[in-house]
Design a protein that fits this description.
GO molecular function, one term: ATP hydrolysis activity
InterPro entries: ATPase_AAA_core (IPR003959), P-loop_NTPase (IPR027417), RecF-like (IPR014555)
Organism: Actinophytocola xanthii
Keywords: ATP-binding, DNA damage, Nucleotide-binding, SOS response
Largest sheet: 8 strands, antiparallel
Distance between the termini: 27 Å
Strand content: 25-35%
Helix content: 25-40%
Radius of gyration: 23 Å
Shape: globular
Number of strands: 18
Strand order of the largest sheet: 2-1-4-5-6-7-8-9
Mean pLDDT: 91
Protein name: ATP-binding protein
């Protein structure tokens, strides 16, 4: 389980160290940095597939995603004046967990060394045992284009391995600890505002195959629900639907191996197909499939799951979130206080973090220096 998330110089996240629990609710006003935190987690996940550079390019490049404020705050407060950057460009992401910790440091290439001047390069990358970086706990260490690892004896291997500056060691090496962490990160699942418009993938019939984890776009919703019914928590599926829509039940139909979705509701002479469902109803069923997955990931992250949902659906959603957190670590990013209160009502151990914006910097409300989890960045 992850216990700490650390971000430095990513959008409004100038210097954020966030404690994580089995179930973490991240809330805050619009513009407080919730979306940046969600993107930072996704960027860490992209790193395990060597996709960090491409992901940053889709966001406009490293320069567009860097903290745009001053490197130093004026002593004693006062207005911030523009200054020339004195330190090298550095975007840092990392996490600490019960078993392993990991951190990366991205920067710009040496001027004149390449025409791809905006492509970030890995300046430092570290994997260590335990939640906090200590030299004695390092398992794999990367400086620019050179990676080294510890041998089974605990001593550093004499071999030094070359790596491209735009590749992560997580995607390039198969040392046991690196391979284990890579597979764990690759299991992370992110669900961000499912499409529910008339042309949404979840409304169409699809070839049905066993689907232990719902796709990010929800296109395989019928197959995912049928997989839950046959090999997962079938009673939990029925209860989740009935709690949200009293007397209703969901049915998956098979037309020549093409699966479709139907919702039976009391008072109607026929069931409703997926194409006829309201946006809120379809979104709720997508969340049911995501949270009742038959293959729980290491980490499940929901971004604003309350979108399009009627307030009456928030308590059933909260119960689903709490149940999922008993099988996997869950992070919910939301600005809906009714959802936060509903989750806290069914899961008192849920950890709520409120983000606030102070002088354009995202901070954790009420967090002082002594309240921050212990964290150390590797130096270049």
């Amino acid at each position: 389980m992850l216990t700490t998330l650390a971000v430095e110089n990513y959008r409004s996240l100038r210097d954020l160290v966030l404690p994580l629990a089995r179930l973490t609710l991240v809330t805050g006003a619009n513009g407080s940095g919730k979306s940046s935190l969600y993107r930072a987690l996704r960027l860490l996940a992209d790193t395990s597939r060597n996709g960090a550079v491409a992901a940053l390019a889709r966001e406009g490049g490293l320069q567009s995603t860097l903290w745009a404020g001053p490197q130093y705050q004026p002593k004693g407060g006062g207005p911030v004046q523009g200054t020339v950057r004195r330190n090298p460009v550095a975007l840092r992401l990392g996490f600490g967990g019960d078993d392993f910790g990991y951190a990366l440091d991205l920067g710009l290439p040496v001027p004149g060394s390449t025409q791809f001047n905006l492509d970030p390069e890995f300046k430092r990358e570290c994997l260590w045992r335990g939640p906090v970086l200590r030299p004695s706990a390092l398992l794999a260490d990367r400086h620019a284009g050179v990676v080294r690892a510890r041998a089974e004896s605990g001593a550093w291997s004499s071999d030094q391995h070359r790596i491209r500056l735009t590749d992560s060691m997580l995607g390039e090496f198969a040392w046991p600890e690196v391979l284990l962490l890579r597979e764990r990160i690759r299991s992370w699942r992110f669900y961000d505002q499912f499409r529910t418009d008339a042309d949404a993938p979840a409304r169409a019939m699809r070839i049905g195959t066993r689907t232990p984890m719902l796709a990010a776009d929800g296109a395989d919703l019928p197959a995912a629900l049928q997989t839950i019914r046959e090999t997962g928590d079938a009673s939990g599926l029925d209860e989740a639907v009935a709690d949200a829509f009293p007397g209703a039940r969901v049915e998956v139909v098979n037309h020549d191996t093409r699966f479709g979705l139907r919702l039976h509701q009391p008072g109607l002479l026929r069931p409703l197909d997926a194409a006829e469902l309201s946006d809120g109803t379809l979104r709720y069923l997508l969340l049911v499939a995501a949270l009742l997955t038959t293959r729980p990931p290491e980490l499940l992250v929901l971004n604003e799951p309350e979108t399009s949902l009627h307030p009456d659906l928030l308590p059933p959603l909260a119960a689903l979130v709490a149940a999922a957190a008993r099988r996997t670590q869950v992070v919910v990013v939301t600005h809906a206080q009714p959802l936060v209160r509903a989750v806290e009502a069914v899961e008192p151990d849920a950890h709520t973090v409120e983000l606030v914006k102070t002088e354009s910097r995202t901070t954790v409300a009420g967090q002082g220096q002594l309240d921050r989890p212990s964290w150390h960045w590797p130096k270049r």
